[in-house]
Amino acid sequence: MKTALVITHVPFEDLGSFAEPLAHHEYRIRYREAGVDNLATRDAYQAELLIVLGGPISATDETNYPFLRDELHLLDERLQKARPTLGICLGAQLMARVLGSRVYPLPQKELRWGPIKLTADGRNCCLQHLAEGVTPVLHWHGDTFDLPESAVHLASTELCKNQAFALGKHALGLQFHPEVTSRGLERWFIGHALEITATAGVSVSQLRADTTRWADILESQGHKCLEQWLRGLATAAGT
After folding, report:
1. Helices then strands, each counted (H, E), the chain
2. Burial status of residue 219 (CB atoms within 10 A of its CB: 0-12, 13-18, 19 or more)
3. Residue 55 to residue 13: CA distance in whole angstroms
4. Looking at the domain covering 2-237, what would its CATH class be?
5. In this structure, what are the phi and psi dihedrals at residue 167, rounded to the nearest 5 degrees?
6. Average pLDDT for residues 7-27, to the nearest whole number?
7. Which of 6, 123, 205, 233 has fewest C-beta within 10 Å?
C-alpha cells in the first residue's frame, strides 16, 4: 500500500474531507506533528505522497519554530526530485519559499468563505471542480507569497493574487482550504478564537453561517478535485 505522510502544525487542522479520496486511492495515511515528531527522516522523503497542512505560524519564522528548517529541507529534497507533494496554506507558503519566492504579510487577513478566480491553466486542471460559480472555498491566512518562477499560476482572489500553483503533475500548492468540513471547522472556531476576535469584520457567527451554507458542496467538489489530481499522479507514475 502507498503511504501519504501528512504534516500537521495544529491538531485540529487535519486532512478533513481529503482523507476519503486518499483511502479510495489506496494510500495509508500517516500523520507527523510538527514541533513534536521528527520530520528529518528518510521515510518522510520516501513516502509516495507528502502533504503539508496549514497552521497559524509564519513560514519564515525558524527562530521561534526551528522545526521549519526540517520541513523546508524535506520539501526541497522532494521538489528537486519531483516527488509528489501537496501543500495547503502554510504548506503552500513553505513550498513557495523553497522554490525561491518571498513570503510576506497581506495588507489585511483573508478570513472568509469566498470564490477563487481560475486562470486558463486552472480551468484545465483539477481546480476546475472549485471554480467560481461552482463552490466557494475557505480562506484563512494573513500571509501570501510571490509565484515561484518555475510554477504555473492557477488561481487568485482580489486580495491575494497567488492562491494556487502547480509544478508539473507532481506538486500542487493551495493557499486556500479545500479540505475543510462543517464538523471539523467547529474545532477551528475554538482553536482560532483569538484570531477571529482580532480580525475586523469577522465573527464566529458569520463563519458558522457560511460554513452551514457551503461546507457540504465544498466537501463534494473537494473530493472531485483531489481525485483528479491523484489520478494525474498515478498516470505520471505509470500505475
Report:
1. 8, 10
2. buried
3. 7
4. alpha beta
5. -120, 105
6. 97
7. 205
